[in-house]
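During the second year of the project, the team shifted from modelling isolated chains to modelling whole assemblies. The rationale, set out in the original proposal, was that interfaces cannot be judged from single-chain predictions alone. As a representative example for this report, we include one of the complexes processed in the last quarter. Its constituent sequences, exactly as entered into the pipeline, are reproduced here:
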Amino acid sequence: MKYFYYSGCSLEGTAIEYNLSTKAVMQALGIELIELEDWTCCGASAAETTSDLLSVVLPARNLALAAKMGMDCDFLIPCSACYLNLRKVDERLNRDEGLRDQINEVLQEEELSYQGGIRSRHLLDVIATDIGTDMIKAKVNHKLSGLRIAPYYGCQALRPYGGYDDPEEPHCMEPLIEALGAEVYPWSMGAKCCGAGLMTTKKEIAVELTGELLKAAKGADCIATVCPMCQMNLDSYQKQVSRAKGEDLRISVLYLPQLMGIAFGLGEEALKLNLNMAYTGSLQAKLRH
Amino acid sequence: MSEEKREIAEGHTAEDLMASIRENIRACMQCGTCTGSCGSAFAMDLTPRQMWRMIQLGLVDEILASRTFSLCSSCYYCTLRCPRGLPLTETIHALKQLAVAKGLAEKKGARFYQTFLETVRRYGRVREMELMARYFLIMKSPVLPLRFTPLGMRLMMKGKVSPEMPKFFGSGKLDAIFRKVKELEARS
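Output from the structure prediction step:
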């Protein structure tokens, strides 16, 4: 198995542990990731609030770089916002000829072109659909026995495009968690919003939304995430959210590939667990058993 | 671009945007599924359902004066559940664009995005520390940075962000693409 790998900007900075743990786990599974040296930002949620054309051109530039390489591979994208933006290009290009021409007129500035056809896929989709539980079970040598993990999918990995799971009641992470030897913490918040970028611009709302999630996760040992934005909202503001809600809401929040890596016995250094903002002593103690 | 020409270009954009916004919402039957699905509705002055009706009635200024559209976190629940299949989240993005085009955008959100795209144009990628530094500079608020200082310090101690200072001059990595997008938008 081989994929173009689009890490995106967050995974070079605040979510570096998501990047490195994803690569480590893929390597352990024998999956090749092809990185595009000259990739640029997908526009995140900023471009779409400023210019519609810019919001498709920025992700299209990356697809055009991949198209130039002439390889028949899907894109693997760990960040949900990047995934949404890259996927949006093909969704819109195929129903709007005029837009296709406009995108290419802009890309021509860098002697690039993109006519569609490369599939953009979320990391979770690739793990659940292409890799699957059998391949994962074969790699597990440190079962996460006794751990209760709350699967958190967030929004844009599932909506509006998705297609690999139920966009309102997703379940695809559950067999993966069980394949690692852990228990699925039952909750109904897996697809609810954490507030996303509102944490920067409208903090009180994001604190409220994140607070509801953390309250519902009480009783789990850990929340599993698949998005750098969800991760940051859930793990970096726990003190402020606890204060706002008047109760202790601290809990470990780890990326799904980090949990996979622990079960594969890859070690804390390879998975960069030291970089997580919320990796509690009680979870560390449980994992040492 | 001269002041006059820019006004004309922006006038066009605002008109086009409004036309496509009204077209998107034409079939709304006011069922309120969107409001019931919205995680931020509790903090809105107009509910999403009310806002769609006001679009149908052409009450743009009232909508732009409300805080509703700026509270959307793009979770896409309303789009997913709309029984008429209307592109509701996309329409909110268009309202955000309209607010910017009309110079009415609420300061914090619009400036954050403007700063964000400025670092993308310059470097091709977002450098998070620089983004926040520029955002604080443009907001000219002495207290805003303090709200983010504890997290910034923790991120720095983990080596996840480096205290780089912004560069203000020189050409940017994506200048050509940004310029061309502007040119095409002015043409349409």
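The mean pLDDT of chain A is 96. The two ends of chain A are 34 Å apart (CA to CA).
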